[in-house]
Amino acid sequence: MSNSGGSVTGALAADGVSFAYPAPRVSSCGVHGTRHDGTLHNVSFHLAPGSSTALVGNSGSGKSTLVRILLALAKPSAGTVALGAREVKPGPARSLRWYRQAVQYIPQNPAGSLDPRMTVSQLLREPLRQLRVAGNHRALAGEALERVEVPAGLLDCRAGELSGGQNQRVAIARALAVQPAYLLADEPVSGLDLPLRNTVLSLLGTLVRQEGLGLLLVTHDLSTAARVCGTTAVMAHGRIVEHGPTHRVLDSPGSPEASALVQASATLHFPQASRPVPRDDA
Ligand SMILES: Nc1ncnc2c1ncn2[C@@H]1O[C@H](COP(=O)(O)OP(=O)(O)OP(=O)(O)O)[C@@H](O)[C@H]1O
Predict the structure, then answer these.
(1) Is the pLDDT of residue 25 over 60?
(2) To test ligand 1's pocket by mutation, which of 41, 56, 61 has the most ligand atoms within 8 angstroms of CB?
(3) Stated pTM of the model
(4) Locate the ABC transporter domain: which residues (predicted)?
């Protein structure tokens, strides 16, 4: 099945985006005059249909802020966000319906955002109703469920009756139900056990390769980037400091920030203590 994305075509792009959170007069810890130099600086980013980009970077580098701006939840102080030829700005819900249909968000711990008292069918139909998507909503819900390989027989079960893995898929199906062209996923597998992480990552990869969705995957885990995403963008201090084919960025990083991430990841996966001890056969 092809995705419609609300019949929107074209790339999702941020062009020269800058953004600063408003400086609070009194911060939550009671300090006056907190200074904000800006969170994003002149960020340009481009995601084509059927392609996948990992957005990596240290904590606080600006990844989630960029996602918020791409979702039209925050207004950049400079630069633009556009889908195809159409510029996108935060605004009233009705003016953004087309965009909310085309670009869906998968949050961290997506299953945790499901109300356990609601049935799978209710959960999947809710965004269809909110975005006033045309068509038979129960049928669209069933189709979305099939795409994540959950039996349509579970439509009338309550989320609280399903396993964690099934709920994780239901949460992804909820984003797919409105037939978006793009998925923006913020650490969607953090907190999952390894088998479930693998299942969800395979599913996301399939959606990109076989169904032509565009995927932006925010992750701290470079092995996740390598597994799913054709390109990787590295953020540091509110800038994209490197963006290229994932294998190139990971094998020969061209920026100190990417090098540091690759090194830190290698240390995490192969800590000194667990490295094989070289045999002294000589
Ligand atoms: N609502 C907010 N108000 C003020 N400052 C914020 C707010 N949200 C984030 N920030 C600041 O903006 C900067 C970028 O934060 P952001 O959450 O985008 O980083 P991140 O790369 O997604 O981090 P993480 O990997 O930890 O989620 C940080 O310095 C953060 O403290």
Answers:
(1) no
(2) 61
(3) 0.87
(4) 12-262
